[in-house]
Amino acid sequence: MVRNKLRRLTEATDAFERAAVVPHDEQDFAPVAVPKEAYVGPRLAFFDLETTDLKGNFGRLLAGSIADSWGHVTTFRYTDYPGQTLIDDSGLAVAIRDELERYDEWVSWNGKLFDVPFLNARLLRAGQAPLRKDRIHVDLMYYAKGQFTRLGSARLENVSRFFRTENNKTPLTPELWALASAGSTHALEEIVEHCEADVLVLRDVYSHLKAHLTVKHR
After folding, report:
1. Domain residue spans of the chain
2. CB 74: neighbour CB atoms within 10 A?
């Protein structure tokens, strides 16, 4: 009996010594890979719109892109939602609204002053309900200036360069906007590429500025 007890103690000691020792702080804070379908936290939507004008009475929607927390991008084009006229963007506006409302939090760049009001204008023009007001909306532009961080410029392109983000904005020319507005599918695809790059850059910048988000507002 004594020999058996001694053998069991020896085996237990050997097993403990072979086990990897993880520091206490790493045990507490090591990242845990969670599959997308198993994630139950707040769902973030990084979004951006491309339009023909800055005002909702003269302009209309060309495209809109939404990236989720994993960097998967969903894009909506006006060519996918033909309306009653060449300038009818009501179907596109509704599709973007419905997709955004699937998320718990929205992240934009100057979205509180432009993207959301513009989309709401086009929705109301089509006789549709505006975006819901019960979603948290983080406009990252305000966290790149003022009391939070002074990076020299609040333009997303400059902030992206400052942080050396993995994704980068793509250049566009006025002629390209005009061609896309006139119905050029080739120009529209370049606009879409630009929009998709924007939401991925926005997601990259969020990873650097989120430390400031101690309080989130709707």
Report:
1. 42-212
2. 17
User: Hey, what long-range contacts does 77-80 have (CB within 8 A, 24 or more apart)?
Assistant: 77/188, 77/192, 78/188, 79/185, 79/188
Q: Which CATH class is domain 42-212?
A: alpha beta
Pairing verdict, β 136-139 and 105-108: parallel
Decide: helix, strand or coil at residue 51.
strand
pLDDT tens string 82-141: 989 989 999 999 999 999 999 999 999 999 999 999 999 999 999 999 999 999 999 999
User: 190: Cβ–Cβ under 8 A, 6 or more apart, which residues?
Assistant: 170, 172, 176, 180
Phi then psi for 87, rounded to 5 degrees? -110, 15
To the question of pTM greater than 0.85 for the whole model, the response is no
3-class DSSP state for residue 62?
strand
